[in-house]
Amino acid sequence: MKNLLFAALVAMLPFLALAQNSVTGKVTDNNLNALPGATIKIKGQRTAVVSDANGDYTLGNLANGNYYVSVSYVGYKTQDKSLVLTGNATLNFALTQQNFLADEVVVSATRASKNSATTFRNLDKAELAKNNLGQDLPYLLNQTPSIVVSSDAGAGVGYTGMRIRGSDATRINVTLNGIPLNDAESQGSFFINLPDLASSVDNIQIQRGVGTSTNGAGAFGGSLNIQTTTRRDSAYAELKNTYGSYNTWKNTVSVGSGLITNKFTFDGRLSRIKSDGYVDRASSNLKSFFVSGAYYGKKDILRANVFSGTEKTYQAWNGIDEETLKTDRTHNDFTYDNQTDNYQQDHYQLFYTRNITNQLVANAALHYTYGRGYYEEFKDDQSLAKYGIPAVVIGGVTQNTSDLVRRLWLDNDFYGVTYSLNYTPSNKLNFVLGGAYNEYKGKHFDEVVWAQFANYDGSGSIRHRYDDNDAFKTDFNIFGRANYQVDQFNFFADLQYRRVYYSYFGIDPNGTPAQQNATLNFFNPKAGITYNINEKSNVYASIAVGNKEPNRNDFTDSDINSRPKPENLKDIEAGYRTQFSNLSFGVNGFAIFYRDQLINTGKLNDVGGQTRQNVPDSYRAGIEFDGKWQILKQLSWAATATLSRNKIKNFEEYIYDEDPAAFTATVVNNYKNTTIAFSPSIIASSEINYNVLPNASIALLSKYVGKQYLDNTSADSRTLSSFFVNDIRLAYNTPLAGIKNVGLSLLINNVFSKLYESNGGTYPYLYGGNLDRFNYYYPQATRNFLLSLNVKF
C-alpha cells in the first residue's frame, strides 16, 4: 500500500509543475466601501481566502475551467458569480446589506469565531451530506481530528459512540441550536434517539478541549455545537434512498416551502433506517421526523422546531469475549427473542431573536424534551426474593428461583430556557452575555413482566414493579465573554458560573436506601490571545478551567461520605492557522491537566457493577494537525493527525474475591505513570478526492488508530490492537429532465476487509485465590457497502 501511494505521488509530480492561473478582485458594499474579512471561496472546494484591510483578495493555483466563486460577509447577502477561466482574471464583488437577521445568530453566543484562540473545526451541510448514507452522526465526523468512532452492531447503525482526544461521550458537550442534548444524569449523548439527524443539520462546529462557554454538561474532551435547518429561499423537495450490506435501508423525504412573502419558511423531514447489523441479531429499526417553521422580519426571527425519534434495537452491548472472537466475530450472547432496547424522544424548541439596535442582538429560547422507554431482558435462575416475589410451592417443592423477563424503564422530562445578548459597540469590541436554566425530572422504575414460577395467576404473565425511584436536577449557568481587537492582536476573556442541584434515590451514611441530594458550584474562567500575522495566518494561545459533576452512578453507588469529588481540569491550547488559495492547515498543541479525574478502578457496587473513583493527578498532552491541499483543480487531499501522551501518575486497582468464603478479601495493585484507557497515542485520517468529471468524483478515505488499553494498567494483554481502515466513495451528480439533481453515491467501507475492533472492555475477578481477567470486544464489519440514490426537485 505504501509503494502504491508513493508511485501515485510520483506520477502526479509533472502535473504539479503546470502553470496555474489566479483570480484577483475587491469586495465592497454597494457604496464601494471596502469589506475586510469577507470570505471568498470556490464552490465545491474547501479552500477559501479572506479579503484584506482594503477588501482585496487573490485566489491562486487555478487551472483553466469553469468556476463558481462565492463571497460571504456577516450582515450582507452572499453573492455568487460564474467564471470561465482561461488565464489570470479580475472579479470584483459589491455586496448588498441584508434586511433581515441570519439564523447563525442563534448559535453565535456559544461558538468560536474564525480568529478565536480556540481549537475547532466547522462542517457545513454539503460536507456532511457526502457520507450521509445511513450511518449514525459520529461516523460522519470520523475524518475530523482526534476522533475515534465505534459501533455495537459493527456497521455504524444503531448504538454508536465516539471519543474526542480519548474522552467518551459523557465528557463531550453536545448542543442542538444551543440547547443541551446530553442526558442530565448519565451525561452521555445518544444519537440513536434522533436517527438521521444529520439530514436536518445545516452546520456543526466541533470544539476540542474546554472550548467556549456553552450550556449543559461540562466539556472535558470537546463540544459538538449543532445547528439544524436554517433559511432556504427556494422551495425544494428531496428523496434519499439507500440500500446496503446487512439488509440496511434508509429512506428520507425532505421538503421546504422556500421564502413565502419574504417572511415565512417551512421545512420538514421524515426518515426510516433499518439494518440487521454485522453482529448476529444486532438489528435496528429507527424512525424520525423533523418539522420547522420560521418568521423573518427586518429585526426579528421567530423559529419553532419539533422533532422526534423512536428506536428499537436488539441488544449487542455485551460485546464478544476474547475466546469466542477467535472463531465467531459476529457472535451475540443474547438469544431471547425480545432482548431489545426501546425508546422515544420528542423535542420542542422555540427561538426568538431581536435586533434591538445595530449594536445589540438578543436571543432567547424555550425548550422541552420528553423521553420514555425501556430495555427488556431475559434473566435465568433469579432469586425471587430479590424481586419481591414470594416463593412458589409446586408439587411440594418450594421454588425460590425462577427464569424471568424484566423491563427497566426510564420516563423523563427536560425543559428550560437559554438566552444571550450580543453587544458590538465597534468592529474592534464585542461582548456576549449568556446563560441557561434547565430542569430535569427522571422516573426510574423496573418490573418483572414474565416469570416461569410466580405466585400469581399461574400464567407466568405478571406486571410486577419491584423498583421505583425518582430523580430531579436543576442546572443554572451564566457566562460573559469579551473580544477586543488591538492592531493585530485579539484578546478574549470568558467567565462562566454554573450551579447544579441533584436529588436522587441513593444510600444514606447508614447504608439505608433513601432520597439524597447534592449541590455543586463551579467557576470556569477562560482567556486567550490571537496574533494575526496577516489576513491569511494567525497564531493563538489560550488557557481554560473546566469543572464537571459526577454522573448518576457515581452518586447512587456511594453515600455522602464516600461520594466522588467533582472533576477539574486546566486546558492549555496553542496553535497556528493559515489559509492560502490552494492550501489551508492548522497545527495545535494541547496540554490538559486533570485533578480528581473519575476512572474505573475495579471496585464494584452492590450489584457487581464497576464504580469510578477520583484519581488525583492525570494529564493529556499532544499535537494535532488538520489541513487540506488543492493539488490540482480535480485533485485534493485532506489529512488530520494527532500525536498524544495520556497518563495517570498513580493508579490503584481493586480486585475483589468473588468466593463467598473469602469474605470480601481484596487485592490492591499499584501502578505508576500508566496510560489512560481508550487513549491512542496516534490518530490519523486522510481523504484523497479526485474529480473524474465535473460532476463525478472518487475518494479514498483512510483512518489509522493506534493501540488502546482496555483498562488503566497499561497491560499488553488487555488492549485494542491498532488498525488502519480504508473506505472508497464514488459520487455522480447531474440535472436530468427538469430535475435539479440526481445523485448516485456508493460507499464501500473497509474495502480491504481489515479484521479489527474499535471498542471493548475488561474486568478482573478473583475466586478462591485465583486471579483471572475477562476481556470483551466489539468487532467492526468487514467489507460492506451503502448505495444511495438522491433526487432533488
UniProtKB/TrEMBL annotation:
InterPro entries: Beta-barrel_TonB, Beta-barrel_TonB_sf, CarboxyPept-like_regulatory, Plug_dom, Plug_dom_sf, TonB-dep_rcpt-like. One of its GO terms (molecular function) is siderophore uptake transmembrane transporter activity. Belongs to the TonB-dependent receptor family. Keywords: Cell outer membrane, Ion transport, Iron, Iron transport, Membrane, Receptor, Signal, TonB box, Transmembrane, Transmembrane beta strand, Transport. Residues 1-19 form the signal peptide. Its main location: membrane. One of its GO terms (cellular component) is cell outer membrane. Gene3D superfamilies: Carboxypeptidase-like, regulatory domain, TonB-dependent receptor, beta-barrel domain, TonB-dependent receptor, plug domain. It is found in: Cell outer membrane. Residues 309-751 form the TonB-dependent receptor-like beta-barrel domain. This is TonB-dependent receptor. PANTHER family: FERRICHROME IRON RECEPTOR-RELATED, FERRICHROME OUTER MEMBRANE TRANSPORTER_PHAGE RECEPTOR. The keyword Acyltransferase does not apply. It comes from Pedobacter frigidisoli. Pfam families: CarbopepD_reg_2, Plug, TonB_dep_Rec_b-barrel. Residues 118-222 form the TonB-dependent receptor plug domain. The keyword Nucleotide-binding does not apply. It comes from the Bacteria. It is a multi-pass membrane protein.
